[in-house]
Amino acid sequence: MEPVSRVFAADLNASSLVLEPGQDPDRRTVMTPSASPCTLLYLAGVLLEVNGRKGNLMHARVADPTGAFEMQVSGTQQESAELLSILKPPAFVTAIAGLRMTGRNLKTPCILDLREIRETDRTVRDSWVIRTGELMFERIIGLNDVLSSGTGSPAQKMVIGHYHHNRQTIREMAEMIRGAATMAGSVSGGELQAGDPVLDVLGIIRENGGENGVLLDTIILIALKSGLQADQVKKAVETLLVEDECYQPSKGVIKLL
Question: Which end of the chain is more exposed for a tag (fewer CB within 10 A), N or C?
Fold first, then answer.
């Protein structure tokens, strides 16, 4: 059985180091900047969109706090297509997906070949974020030790050389972890306090959104009457979008998740 990896979308999407193929040339292992070898992934996030129909090629996009995973299901993968077709975005999901090579395009070295997807809840997503962050932190601590000592495993040295790692890139990966963990913590822990513009804007969306959501301009107009400034409202909406409290079904429209 293939080993299953957990990585953030931003870590995977920044990958360009591809190891030699095994028996299946399409199933090469991708080594991420944080030194995670990936062939099969377990991921969790918000299913944002599904395109296509069963029997044809289907595409899906699942977002975690760092970015989005792009996935596909071919017409021959009937079970995966059936699972995907019954989900209605936006929805919290977990998924298992294999990595398939797209060719020599190093910007996008692979896409995710969906094998299984299940609807879940915010708690599961947050738990995945925290655990994935812990694993990534362990890996980058190892990379940092190699930078300090000059000694380490061949895989670590290969990653450092390929991605030109230095203290700054290690710090940037650490910031990614901290940012993702903060988002998960603020969602599950309820850190928003009374008087916070984010909480005020969230209340406006809840009261005025309805089934179709509410225009950003409408949110701003209502918030102005409460003493908030337009810039505060826009920043609050950005925070709510990042924390998966709401989403944009169309341009300029905000709706609760």
Answer: N
Q: Tokens representing 187? A: 């969602």
Same domain, 70 and 177: no
**pTM to 2 decimals?**
0.71
Local structure of residue 32 (DSSP, 8 states): P
* Stronger pLDDT, 157 or 106, i.e. the higher one: 157
Domain count, the chain: 3
- At residue 23, does pLDDT exceed 80? no
Query: Are 173 and 136 within 8 A, CB to CB?
Result: yes
Residues 201, 249 within the same domain = yes
Place of tokens 């595409």: 59
SS3 assignment, position 5 = strand
Residue 235: CA atoms inside 13 Å, Cβ hemisphere, count?
7
Alpha-carbon distance of 163 to 146, in angstroms, equals 14
Q: Are residues 23 and 116 in the same domain?
A: yes
Task: Give the domain extent around 208.
Answer: 197-256
**DSSP class of 59:** E
Do 85 and 167 fall within a single domain?
A: no
Whether residue 88 is found in the same domain as residue 148:
no
SS3 119: strand
Measuring CA to CA, which residue among 18, 44, 23 is closest to residue 102? 18
pLDDT tens, residue by residue, 71-90: 998 867 788 888 888 898 88
| Residue at a domain's end among 120, 145, 173 | 120
